[in-house]
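Task: fold both queries, return tokens.
Query 1:
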Amino acid sequence: MRKLAFAFGLFALIGFARAEAADYQIDPTHTHILFMVNHLGFANMVGLFTDFSGKISFDPKNIDASAVSVTINTASLDTQYAQRNKDLKGADWFNVAEFPTMTFVGKKYIKKDDKSGTVIGDLTLLGVTRPVSLDVTLNKMGTNPLDKKEEVGFSARGMIKRSDFGMKTFIPAIGDEVTILLEVEAKR
């Protein structure tokens, strides 16, 4: 999921990048990778991943040469409830012992307008790779006034079916559709 979250940033830069290629590193102190899944129809349970890294490379003169990749440490999952965290890290869910990471690699960007579009990439979770689409909004690109580094920020939203990756425990009581919410800052 790390790669999933950060792939969005690369493609959100299209139309906003400077005239030269730029590499951006995901800023983990200002980035959030969250997910929501329905719990018994009563509410949506929220979780997040706290350990991830990613890189966005963008060349506005050659968009096809641009790249994005993100890696998420699945054991960093946190739902703010210790027993649920333990259960979700187990073999019936994220199986962190066998699959310690998940990844996202961006493949294509479809521009909607100057501030938004859709990034399509490959998410690998539980050893299964599937295409995922994320709607991306560029929030801002420029110089961070605090550290004077070039930075880009964006929001991304998407949905996956966990069963597509082999995670079928308690479907339909626990929802199959998982909403992905990303708030990302990346520094050059």
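Query 1 returned. Query 2:
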Amino acid sequence: MKTGRKLFNMLQMAAEAHARWEIETSTNILRSRKKLLILLIMCLPVLAFLGLSWAAGDVLGGKKAYAPAFYSTSIFLITIFIGLCAGLITGCIGAGGGFIITPALMSAGIKGILAVGTDLFHIFAKAIMGTAVHRKLGNVSVKLAVAFVAGSFAGVVVGGGINRAIYEFNPVMSDLFISLVYVFLLGFLGIYAMTDFLRLQRAGREHRTLAPDKEKVAKPPTPATTGLAQKLQSVKMPPLITFDEDIVPGGNRISGVFVAICGAVVGLVAAIMGVGGGFLTFPIFVYILGVSSFTTVGTDILQIIFTAGFAAISQYAIYGFIFYTLALGMLLGSLLGIQVGALTTKVVKGIYIRGFYATAILAGFINRLFALPGKLNTMEYISISKGLARTLDFIGLLVFFLIIGVFAIWVCAMFFKNLSKLKGEAESAKLVEEVA
């Protein structure tokens, strides 16, 4: 139980660091007229294609023409909604919004492998449009990042290869495999997130959110001292990488081989699940490699950009497993959602948002869990009626979008209800910044 709690805390810290990067990235894009113009130009062909689809009925991606999955105007609009909800969760809670994207896309009718590839491309597109590793994210160890990314590239090739091989063997098995991965991950995260929420509620105190204005004063960074980390650092296998020089006199050293192996694990998981892999990097860096949390944060964000980009392009884009229009929809939705979510944290108690977050993660777990019987029945692993399979799948779909939709409506309502107050705070902050 203690080990599970520690792992959950590490995963949470990683998601929080990634959320801060997401908020900063979306802010950078929205503040740049050139980047907004690029988005507008990207939207024009999409709108033209949607008009053609509506007029022609059956085009490439339609029900009768060949395509990996059915595509329609409604699915594009749903992806904007999915991006918006993921952005609201990321902005409000400061963690975990990306975990719902792949399950949500699969629920919207997108095949698992396409959902994975599209999500990875969405992460990469957002990164190249608006990111810079900000000094607030922490120290960046370039040597650690290079070794880690080298390993992650190898893991990405293996993970992407596994997804494609399963899909080519049986598309239903591909969806089953990806759903199972998310059932285990979201089940673990959801149970601990709900336990954490109930514990905080019983304690009767408000849980902090990670909006920039509510961050706690950072404690002095300390190096990790786990037994495993000390053992690995004692192995003098070349090439040796020095890190944490600003924290430990002379810095710590570890073999680049161990760093690359850990990177391979993260790349493997990222390519299979369609995420940047940041939720795994944090516990691996701190517990296994012995890197301080201060250095881990900045290095983690840097590796996400390269890992997601390489996975999206080399394993999915060139094989046709990315819906660019859907990635654009998610990008548009998330840019708006993150900003609204981050502002809403100023007027909403964190404990309520934390409760919604735990519920949303569990909803994603239920969604994928209830989709399993139908896929197992199709592959003849179990025998149930098609009506029961469709009913279970519909229940999972209904629970998921109902909870996510209620969360989105609630956050937006709180945002517009307190809009005048938020405007006043923004003007005050701008005035203080100008004076400073």
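Both queries returned. Flag for query 2: The two ends are 48 Å apart (CA to CA).
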